[in-house]
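Tokens as discussed.
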């Protein structure tokens, strides 16, 4: 069974940086994708960035605008999200997810989710 555990959230000033980590255990095959999503109270969860490690491809939401970088350490089975030039509107609970890739950059209702980590950007 795949388990996903995020860490690295916190409070940061606008314009600052933060790195989120997501450790995945129980991976059994190569055709998978992993990604970061975020959610604020009262709104739906939205995709931020994702990648398919086996083919070394990444995908970003348009609002990222080059500020975030997703990466994966295969030896450590850890997914990272480096966030630079943070804005107040980036404040949210960030979730890591895992799914069977199959060409889908955001997965579907079958995603395996972590518990989330809070990111708060102050002005």
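Sequence:
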């Amino acid at each position: 069974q795949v388990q996903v555990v995020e860490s690295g959230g916190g409070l940061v000033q606008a314009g600052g940086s933060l790195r989120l980590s997501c450790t995945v255990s129980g991976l059994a095959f190569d055709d998978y994708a992993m990604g970061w999503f975020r959610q604020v109270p009262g709104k739906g969860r939205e995709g931020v960035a994702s990648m398919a490690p086996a083919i070394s491809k990444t995908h970003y939401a348009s609002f990222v605008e080059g500020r975030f970088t997703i990466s994966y350490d295969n030896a450590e089975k850890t997914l990272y999200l480096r966030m630079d030039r943070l804005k107040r509107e980036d404040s949210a609970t960030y979730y890591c997810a895992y799914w069977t890739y199959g060409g889908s950059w955001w997965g579907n209702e079958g995603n395996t989710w972590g518990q989330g980590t809070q990111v708060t950007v102050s002005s």
